[in-house]
Design goal:
Elements: H1 13-52, H2 62-86, H3 98-102, H4 106-112, H5 118-158
Helix pairs in contact: 1-2, 1-5, 2-5
Protein name: DUF5706 domain-containing protein
Keywords: Antiviral defense, Cell membrane, Membrane, Nucleotide-binding, Transmembrane, Transmembrane helix
InterPro entries: PycTM_dom (IPR043760)
């Protein structure tokens, strides 16, 4: 995803400040988007898995049962990935992140933030966003696999 159009390359201090602020806001927004998407997908997978509980004990052809089992496993794996997206990560991040600040004294915080830490913060936030989007991408792929397996299970039950 491209950076917002308001970021214009320029070497002036004011432009650089503006670009760093915009990049911080942009990456923070991307992280918020992953959390929102993951929450919706978690609700979807939970509803589908709850609905599948009604199939327990129902006679299904072997092919359909294998497809449903594969779909359930894919949905469970997707749920784990989605939970990893929304799970807070409180380790690491360097001296420019709030988990580190929680362990510092006021003086250490002032020292850590003495210079311009926006570039380091952008790097940390970008790594978090890339990790979250990666988990989200895999979860969506698994949900699509589950839906395809459900379709095959229905076709197998009708044939």
């Amino acid at each position: 995803m491209a950076l917002p159009a308001l970021i214009v390359p320029d070497h002036s201090s004011t432009r650089t400040d503006h670009n760093l602020d915009a990049a911080c806001a942009h990456v923070s927004g991307e992280i918020a988007r992953t959390d929102g998407k993951s929450s919706l997908l978690l609700a979807f997978t939970g509803a589908v898995l709850a609905g599948l509980a009604s199939l327990v004990g129902q006679p299904l052809p072997v092919f359909s049962l294998a497809c449903v089992t594969t779909a359930v496993l894919a949905l469970m794996a997707a749920s784990v990935l989605l939970l990893m997206v929304v799970r807070p990560r409180l380790r690491g991040g360097g001296r420019e992140s709030f988990p580190a600040w929680a362990r510092m004294s006021e003086a250490e915080i002032r020292e850590a933030l003495h210079g311009d830490v926006r570039a380091a913060r952008i790097q940390i936030l970008s790594r978090i966003a890339v990790r979250k989007f990666g988990h989200l991408q895999w979860a969506v792929d698994l949900i699509l696999l589950a839906l395809a397996m459900f379709l095959l299970a229905v076709i197998g039950a009708l044939v």
